[in-house]
Amino acid sequence: PLRNDVSARAHNKSDIQDQTRGVGFGWFAATVKPNRFAQAKLNLQNQGFETFMPLLERTVRSGRSEHVVLRPAFPGYIFVGFDRDATQWRVINNTFGVSGLVMGAANAPLPVHEALMSSMKARCDDMGKVLPPSAFSAGDRVRILNGPFKDLLAEVSQTTSSNERVRLLLELMGRPVATECDSGALEILDA
Predict the structure, then answer these.
(1) DSSP characters over 87-103
(2) Looking at residues 146-170, what average pLDDT do you find?
């Protein structure tokens, strides 16, 4: 119960932040020290900065067992939201876990395009986990993310009505082979 209250308060806090953003508000990329994503995110949030770090589900093999873990979609980077004109943004460069902001000309942080940030945030849940596409269509090129055909490319040939399972065509040994896969284990490739 306590955890839900904390997450509800955090969600309400982000709603308030969305309403009080200034004209100069933008999203910026910061490089993160190796294996310090959680530390960087926590320290940035404690300083009052908004953070966004999209996470992907990956299957990791450990001995004979497999575990599903969340890994950053952009290893080595975290997105930080702030008003460049009204914030002392240089403190980000001295935050534990952060190497520094990605800088451009005139020694100023480079903003990430708002359209890109909006589309990334739309594809993630409240915790930053990237959600699978809501619909696949025949002809989509996909990458299989886990299972025996991990990292193979395939083409969607058919979907079920609930869109939970997808029928794929793989090219194995020079021949197309049909198989079915869970839609959550697929990633659509851009054309």
Answers:
(1) S-GGGGGGSTTEEEEPB
(2) 81
